[in-house]
Amino acid sequence: MKSQPVEFLEPVEHDLHYATAFYGSWKLHGAEDFMQRFRESVAWIEWNPEMFPKKYRQFRRAIIRKSYFAIYYAIEPKVTTVVAVLDMRRKPETIRGVLDLRS
Is the pLDDT of residue 25 over 80? Predict the structure, then answer.
């Protein structure tokens, strides 16, 4: 598949705020480091959306390097939509519930 633009659902902003607050609370420059790795993951998704595996229904998961978080997204005909950035330490049922609510 060729590259295509990435867009974000509005709740992803809250997800990122939670993740940066988490890393910023206990690690010097943790929030900045996390956001850099997040941007790297988004660049990979934009370059080749099919690179990462499907994990639940139409949603794929890209694990953010050196973090507990992953990007969940769906490939659409002309755009890739990021629906959530979630802590993977959550129960799988909770993650699926969030994805169901945002689909």
Answer: yes
Q: For residue 103, with 0-12 CB atoms within 10 Å meaning exposed, 13-18 middle and 19 or more buried, which class applies? A: middle
Q: Is the model's pLDDT at 36 over the cut of 80?
A: yes
Q: Return d(Cα 47, Cα 67) in angstroms, integer.
A: 21
Q: Residue 47: pLDDT above 90?
A: yes
- For tokens 């956001």, the residue is 35
Q: What is the CATH number of the domain that holds 67?
A: 3.30.2310.20
Residue 13: domain span: 6-102
Residue 84: inside a domain: yes
